[in-house]
Design a protein that fits this description.
By secondary structure, the chain is mostly beta strands. Helices cover about 5% and strands about 45% of the residues. The strands form nine sheets. Strands 30, 31, 32, 33, 34, 35, 36, 37, 38, 39, 40 and 41 form a twelve-stranded antiparallel beta sheet that branches. The protein has a five-stranded mixed beta sheet with strand order 8-9-10-11-15, with no helix packed on it. Strands 7-6-5-29 form a four-stranded antiparallel beta sheet, with no helix packed on it. The N terminus is likely disordered.
Length: about 550
């Protein structure tokens, strides 16, 4: 710049290089320009911060800060932006966002669904009008108008409305609305540029028609799709392979009032559906079909629901978050598992004008890991030989005694994949959830209690004494003392942290009875915990490890 150039020129150049498109900051002092060895120094004191967005005015926010608890993420569809609030558990009223991501460099254009991968600290955004998925790294501190770190595009990407990140398998599901398809990408945390999906759901047999949302339950191997013609379609995820994209859904759930958003609570097996000015709730989601009706419905004037879009349930706190598009707000309902009727929201977060909220996400929530079927099963020991059975069978813990002089004792084993959780991650909580489905005889009277061992038996389950009784890392104690049917849970936070810290790619557990494993009464006494294949009892209640990653 020549010394004779005007101060107004300096203002213009500073605004262009430092601020998002359509966003300007008032300067509270003059800008002084000096030329020292060819370097221009600009000194300015600023009173306000601005984050603009296409299609709307700027949003004045406090200085950007990052939080340590659960953060709330909201995408603005009308004014393209991401609003981030540090404390999802308390934010309400007219509270301003702690951070705003917006402006021309972000390339946000009609953003819809969003998801956060806490394991890799990344935000995924379905960029509807730009036929792309944007990925911003450093999710808990990202702010301002920076460009995304990655952008996933491709010839098949056409109007993506929603996405689901399967953190456990590092997999991305995209509801490709205008393309009438569901796109599935493996190795999601590293993809960039023009990338073809690994697999896809597409074709006449799928009956996909402008799908607008997608969720996956990896523990039950199901994919749920909110179809544009007023249906929830349920697909067998394992059947979606590169060589066979055009498959029929397992079943459909009709939603007469239309559907715009869905959420699946994997642990509770519960489906939430945003429809018209209501939220419909289905218990037993994995078995819902064309004859199913909602168990509960949040609706009516008291609920304040007005054109809800995306919905999210923080399963750790049992709170339902609703992107309330027509009300330009976020509604929060406590006790999501039982809320019903014209219930008023417990909190109402009003957003800045013309935000048009669409996507919504809360980050510090449990990641549900399913048991690996090939590494889970049971091992029987008859006193001389070990027999391991995985991928089905009739899993059991206890004894089998067909006669007085013959019998064996059985232990069940479960393996949960941690390979996509970085060794630098901090596990804030980890809960082992195993479903006790049935029993034979009177094992709790005759043998004692079911106890859990934390073990490491490696990449195979085989006929070896090591898998049956070796590899012990810790004795975790009593797991069950009665024949009551239902999930048993155990806090294994310290053990999963140990697995992650010691770079074990799996967290593995073994069940057995104690103090006895066989009692010589010529009668079988054992319990059955369900496996990943549901081979025991047909109850659709798989083994799960719920992990919450802390920032």
């Amino acid at each position: 710049m020549a010394m004779g150039d005007s101060i107004s020129t300096v203002h213009l150049e500073w605004r262009r290089s430092q601020q998002p498109a359509r966003c300007f900051m008032p300067l509270t002092s003059a800008v002084r320009v000096s030329v020292l060895t060819g370097t221009i120094f600009l000194v300015a004191f600023l009173l306000a911060a601005c984050n603009g967005g296409g299609g709307g005015g700027g949003t004045v926010v406090p200085p950007p800060t990052s939080g340590t608890g659960s953060q709330l993420y909201v995408s603005g569809n009308t004014s393209p932006r991401l609003l981030i609030y540090n404390d999802a558990n308390t934010v309400s009223g007219g509270t301003l966002p702690n951070r705003v991501v917006s402006g021309g460099l972000t390339t946000l254009s009609g953003p819809r669904g969003i998801a956060v991968d806490m394991a890799h600290d990344q935000i995924y955004v379905a960029n509807f009008l730009n036929d792309s998925i944007l990925v911003f790294h450093n999710a808990r501190i990202v702010t301002g108008g920076d460009a995304p770190d990655r952008m996933i595009t491709g010839a098949t990407m056409d109007g993506p409305s929603a996405l689901f990140v399967d953190v456990v398998n590092n997999r991305l599901f995209v509801a490709n609305t205008n393309g009438n398809s569901i796109l599935i990408y493996d190795n999601a945390s590293a993809l960039n540029g023009n990338v073809a999906p690994t697999r896809a759901l597409t074709g006449a047999m799928t009956t996909l028609n402008a799908p607008i949302d997608v969720c996956a339950d990896a523990t039950r191997n199901l994919v749920y799709v909110a179809n544009g013609n007023g249906q929830i379609l349920v697909f067998n995820n394992a059947a979606i392979v590169a060589s066979s994209n055009d498959i029929a859904p397992l079943r459909s759930i009709p939603i007469s009032s239309g559907v715009v958003g869905i959420f699946v609570d994997i642990m509770a097996d519960r489906l939430y559906v945003a429809s018209a000015n209501s939220v419909l709730i289905f218990d037993g989601a994995s078995r819902a079909n064309s004859g199913s009706t909602p168990n509960r419905t949040i609706t009516g004037g008291g609920s304040m629901l007005n054109q809800p879009r995306d919905i999210f349930v923080d399963t750790g706190t049992d709170r339902l978050y609703v992107a309330n598009f027509g009300g330009n707000s976020v509604l929060v309902f406590n006790n999501a598992s039982i809320v019903n009727g014209s219930t008023a929201p417990d909190r109402n977060l009003s957003l800045t004008a013309s935000t048009g909220p669409w996507g919504i996400y809360v980050d510090v929530t449990p990641i549900v890991v399913g048991s690996t079927s090939s590494l889970a099963g049971f091992i029987e020991f008859d006193g001389s030989a070990y027999t391991a059975i995985s991928n089905g069978g009739s899993p059991r813990t206890g004894d089998d005694e067909p006669s007085l002089f013959t019998g064996s004792r059985a232990r069940q084993l479960f393996s949960f994949d941690l390979s996509n959780i970085p060794t630098t991650a901090t596990v804030g909580a980890a809960i082992l959830r195993l479903y006790q489905a049935s029993q034979v005889g009177t094992p709790f009277n005759d043998l004692g209690s079911v106890v859990v061992d934390h073990v490491s038996y490696g990449a195979t389950l085989d006929n070896s004494p090591g898998d049956y009784e070796g590899g012990l890392l810790a004795l975790l104690g009593i797991f069950s003392t009665s024949d009551t049917i239902g999930y048993r849970t155990l806090d294994v936070t310290a053990r999963v942290n140990s697995d992650v810290t010691n770079m074990r790619s799996r967290s593995q557990y073994r069940l057995r009875f104690s103090p006895l494993e066989i009692n010589g009464d010529a009668a079988s006494d054992h319990v059955q915990y369900t496996d990943a294949e549901d081979s025991c009892c047909g109850v659709s209640q798989p083994p799960q490890l719920a992990i919450t990653i802390q920032p």
